[in-house]
Design goal:
The strands form three sheets. Strands 1, 2, 8, 9, 10, 11, 17 and 18 form an eight-stranded mixed beta sheet that branches. A seven-stranded mixed beta sheet has the order 6-5-13-14-15-12-16, sandwiched between helices. It is of the alpha/beta class. A hairpin with a 2-residue loop joins strand 17 and strand 18. The chain is globular and about 60 Å long. The longest helix has 26 residues. It has twelve helices and 18 strands.
């Protein structure tokens, strides 16, 4: 069995893994990123970058934007449509994940990370000095630190023992956009609040394609398919050429789920890091990946004790966002009509606009007294420890 030694080995080449690899390599660590596929590759994802994600990406990659969104049309189960326009910065920047991830791959390589593609990780083990990643061909890579970023169903998440308290099924289709579609949807997305509690749908324009999708709690597969069919019909898009269709599960971590096991850290989806209401995960992936890479590079120089800094960063910066998102999801699930109406008010729209533009976090929204009082009255109370 051949064996190669690195300071940092990253499993998974999505936004979390590649931001980790870029950060670790830029900090001087000998870094390798391993992925089972070959870039550029398709990845099921809405591909809407909120301002937080754009702010993290723009200084590091050339963002392959397909559209810049300044307007959102809101509907309530296909009805009561109205459109709000942003002021100043874009609300969303639309990307295709094959383009976006490939740009990050090039950035990681440019920073000095080695890239191993078409390589399946079969096992992870560790001792007091290092961790070993065994591949399907029997070869092994040894590193002082391993960063797992291979998704919520990946081997690193299972190895660390991440647990989840929210699981949702997303279905989406990529449609070939006609010239009329491009004109109608350019610069605008649609968000539809679904009839099933906690569900919603979206239309995201990407120049020559429209991404149309829906998401709902896992275990309601038939209802999710019916929602997508109904949504497409209501949009008048049922006859468009389907370029591809796909589904995926999103999983949000339990509060007490571990973020590390010895020399193995998990980031992004592998750690269950996403915002529970919108299920936005790219900003969580980029932030957690970069922190994991920086901490891992430091640990390679200073020793494993430096790894404690990674869970502390997640608890400080991302855990409050997840808690706030859960509270908002609770209110949305019980009172979707009120959420729809709130988007038509100056207060509600400014809060949502601020979140999209990256100027306001979910936790920041709930720190605003009028919104906090309203959320509490509607059943989204702050959970009490224990």
């Amino acid at each position: 069995m051949a064996e190669t030694t690195f300071d940092v080995a990253v499993v998974g080449a999505g936004p979390a893994g590649l931001s980790a690899a870029r950060a670790a390599a830029a900090a001087g660590a000998r870094t390798i990123v391993i992925d089972r596929a070959e870039h550029p590759r398709y990845k099921t994802c809405g591909g809407g970058l909120i301002g937080t994600s754009l702010g993290l990406a723009a200084p590091r990659i050339q963002v392959p934007a397909r559209d810049s969104i300044s307007a959102i049309t809101f509907t309530d189960d296909g009805n009561r449509a109205f459109t709000r326009q942003s002021t100043g910065k874009p609300l969303l920047t639309m990307v295709r994940r094959d383009d976006f991830d490939h740009a990050w791959l090039k950035a990681a390589a440019a920073s000095g990370a080695e890239v191993l593609q078409n390589a399946q990780v079969r096992a992870i083990d560790q001792d007091t000095e290092s961790a070993t990643v065994t591949l399907a061909d029997g070869s092994a890579l040894t590193a002082r630190v391993v960063i797992g970023a291979d998704g919520s169903a990946g081997i690193t998440s299972r190895y660390v023992g991440v647990t989840f308290d929210q699981q949702d099924l997303g279905l989406e289709v990529e449609l070939a956009a006609t010239p009329e579609d491009r004109a109608a949807w350019r610069g605008r997305v649609q968000l539809d609040w679904g009839a099933e509690p906690g569900s919603y749908g979206w239309v995201f324009p990407k120049d020559d394609e429209l991404t149309v999708g829906v998401i709902m709690a896992k275990g309601k597969g038939a209802e999710t398919k019916d929602y997508l069919t109904k949504f497409l019909a209501g949009l008048g898009l049922h006859g468009r050429e389907v370029v591809r269709d796909s589904g995926h599960l999103t999983r949000c971590r339990a509060d007490d789920a571990p973020l590390a096991r010895g020399r193995v850290l998990v980031a992004g989806d592998a750690a269950g890091l996403l915002e529970p209401w919108t299920r936005e995960g790219i900003s969580f992936a980029l932030r957690s990946g970069a922190w994991a890479g920086e901490v891992a590079a430091r640990a390679a120089q200073q020793g494993a004790g430096a790894l404690d800094g990674y869970p502390a960063l997640i608890r400080k910066h991302l855990a409050p966002e997840i808690t706030a998102g859960r509270r908002l999801l609770t209110v949305f699930s019980r009172h979707r009509h009120l959420i729809h109406a709130a988007m038509a008010t100056p207060l509600g729209w400014r809060a949502f606009e601020g979140f999209c533009q990256g100027d306001l976090t979910m936790a920041g929204i709930l720190r605003r007294a009028p919104l906090r009082v309203a959320i509490n009255l509607l059943g989204g109370e702050q959970p009490h420890p224990g």
